[in-house]
Amino acid sequence: MSKLHLRQATSDDLNALLQLEQRCFTEDRLSRRSFRRFIEMPRDRLIVAETTHEGASELLGYCLVLMSAATRLARIYSIAVLPTARGHGIGEQLIKTAEHEAASAGRILMRLEVREDNSGAITLYKRLGYRQFGTYRDYYEDHGTALRFERRILFYEPSREFLPVPYYPQTTDFSCGPAALIMAMAALDEEQPLTTLEELRIWREATTIFMLAGHGGCGPHGLALSAWKRGFEASAWVSTEGPLFQDTVRNNDKKRVLELVHEGFLKDISQTGIRLHHAPLTLEAMEQALHNGQIPVILISTWQLNRSRVPHWVTVCAIDEQFVYLHDPDIDVDDGETVADKQYLPVDKRVFSRISRYGRNQPLQAAVIVGPKR
């Protein structure tokens, strides 16, 4: 095969695109009007693959990528390769080029739909790192089912501006706070243990005893004390002065236990150099802490991310003009997630302002900033 050239489509490609559509699909075909609209839409990308032989060009495939103005998502709306040109990696090159274009436009995830009986395409997508996250019934004109796939395409490039933060996944459902704190401390001290034993020790020190159902989670006071106990500078930022998470338990005896735990934390903090601020930690202060060689650990609501109302601790690793980059210690293996999915996870700053608070009425904002060893 002659050398392949990938480029943005122009209106001169319309006839060739229509011919390719006719040869590749029997249903759900794009019209000339649709192709023209996508070519003229500056936000979207229509990438074509062509070869030139003896001065004549031939269009072998295309990939149409839609990019929403309201989100950081991109979507492969349609992809096609001539039947006679398949088996030469053209589809893979189109996908990789589409991912590069979308990532350059600040998109975090690439999504796509594929017929459930298209085993060749499904195999390719999985090999390229896509994972299934949903299903559309009655999606195609013939009432066929589509499988939904996605892959993270935007990754943080390490910078000398900020300390590198090692990644450590939580090993229980209730120890996100200790795991997030371990990552922060490990960024500041290479001898910091990254072990399940250390994770559980911190949980025992910092737990609120009760929260929702099951084991209690950790609050900012306890996490700050755990960091201080291990020799690190620490400060805590909490938007409320009273006991935390009381609205997650209904039993009055349990509420009283939460009050006693809170009183104990405050007494212990008073005997340390921990700075306790009863105010939210601003994004500007968070970025300044990173520049000062400190690592913020923050409480978020995962409702914006996965529709869960559980409070969750993450580690802030870097901030740039568009994103806040997080280490999320929670890996959902059953959902196909890997360590790579949760390291330097980019969150749009506008979204971050919504997730960095927990609860509906008077939402809680909490953070711990871990500094170098004393």
UniProtKB/TrEMBL annotation:
UniProt entry tagged with the keyword Iron-sulfur: no
Domain spans labelled N-acetyltransferase: 4-154
PROSITE patterns assigned: GNAT (PS51186)
Keywords: Acyltransferase, Transferase
Pfam family, any one: Acetyltransf_1
Entry keyword Acyltransferase: yes
Signal peptide: none
InterPro entries attached to this UniProt entry: Acyl_CoA_acyltransferase (IPR016181), Bact_Acetyltransf (IPR050832), DUF3335 (IPR021770), GNAT_dom (IPR000182)
Highest taxon, organism lineage: Bacteria
UniProt cross-references to PANTHER family, sorted A to Z: AMINOALKYLPHOSPHONATE N-ACETYLTRANSFERASE-RELATED, AMINOALKYLPHOSPHONATE N-ACETYLTRANSFERASE-RELATED-RELATED
Full protein name: GNAT family N-acetyltransferase/peptidase C39 family protein
Species of origin: Marinobacter aromaticivorans
